[in-house]
Amino acid sequence: MRPIHIGVNLKDRLRAALAVALLATLAACGGGGDSGSSNNNSNILNGGSLPPSPTQQPIAATAANTVPITVGRGLSGVINIPSVSVRICAPGSTSICQTVDNIQLDTGSFGLRVVSSALNAPLLNVLPPSTVGSNNAQLAECATFADGFTWGTVRTATIAIGGETTTTAIPLQIIGDKDASTVPAGGCGGGSPENTAGDLGANGILGVGTALTDCGATCANPATAQTYSNYFACPGGTSCTRTAVPLNQQVANPAANFAADNNGLIVQMQPVPNGGAASATGTLVFGINTQTNNALGGAQVFTTDPFGDLNNSTFNGTTVQAFLDSGSNAYFFTDGSLAQCGSNFTGFYCPSSAQTRSITLVGLNKVTTNANIGILSAATLFGNVSNYAFNNLAGQIGGNSSFDLGLPFFYGRHVFYGFDRTSTGGASPFVAF
Known about the structure:
The protein is mainly β. The chain has two domains: 2-14 and 59-257, Cathepsin D, subunit A, domain 1 (Beta Barrel), CATH 2.40.70; 35-57 and 290-432, Cathepsin D, subunit A, domain 1 (Beta Barrel). Helices cover 8% and strands 34% of the residues. It contains seven helices and 27 strands. It has helices at residues 19-27, 42-45, 121-124, 197-200, 217-220, 222-228, 378-381, and strands at residues 2-6, 10-14, 66-71, 82-89, 97-106, 110-115, 131-132, 137-144, 148-161, 164-165, 170-175, 192-193, 204-208, 231-234, 241-242, 264-269, 280-286, 301-303, 310-315, 318-324, 331-332, 355-362, 368-375, 394-395, 402-405, 414-418, 430-432. A hairpin with a 2-residue loop joins strand 19 (310-315) and strand 20 (318-324). 55% of the residues are buried.
């Protein structure tokens, strides 16, 4: 779920994955087979070659600052969707709570968003709606995707993930709890509404990237919010119009609001075979250098802009905005030398032989490295409909100014995200691996 720049500084969320459209395609493919060593022989390389795969293993998710990550068939068979469980409680309560499974782990967005139908009525009915303005208008939010949008109210809840809990109730978005008639005309993005778990391929999205809130100063400043805010004031629950929202009312990154281990996190995924695997596991570790299990160690650190972007990176001689995004289910970039798939797998690359590409990642601190990625034909990978975890899947992104290092980059790596604490004189945001 990659945020994109809108207007000046606003970050809406981009579903770069094309995953929902892929679901019907995979269901029609037929076939089968296992995900063992046969997927790694010369047949899938077809005369090409792949870079060595990273081999780091995740730690066991047994400590209080950890939670398991799973990639598998999930709710609706969408590939490369890393999922975690999140516990949501009514403010001030330890009993009116619900643990929601199949929440997508998304390092490319910021804040928790949960589909309303995934919550039971006793909890949903007591989550306080946020209001804005002198008339206490109901606060709603629109999140724009590549192929549509979500729409729902902003409410507050206490969030627990693993053994970590937010110190207070924080704002989150409840997707799909407002009638379609309340969507602002022309004000909530193009495409179709995506307000169900079936549309999203998950019960919600846990945005834990480098930013503390999902919009920041652009939505807090009335001058810019009038045009670019993704928040809407709805007097009486209707007649919704774009509005400014203070930072403390914006949908917030839960991991930055824990009592401890709140300066960042690590996404650790196991390696997967080159031909894919039926499933994969990993561990989400909270905090960096706060416990014995989250040391930064020898990882290479790249400072970023507030949203985790490496804006001075280069690919094929062109400056690109690179980002490490667990919410995208493939590598997404533009390369005219790679054959694209036909209509069955629109948007993905289908080279006749295995390919390697290299991107030069550059941090604001001038730290530089070359990251090599492997690419196999999507048609070959999707030929085994039992597989849902792929480390060599790539597709095209609009334009040539962005390079999305999606979930395939995470397999076999420990990827660190340091939260942006500069507003309080703290550390700059960074990514590291």
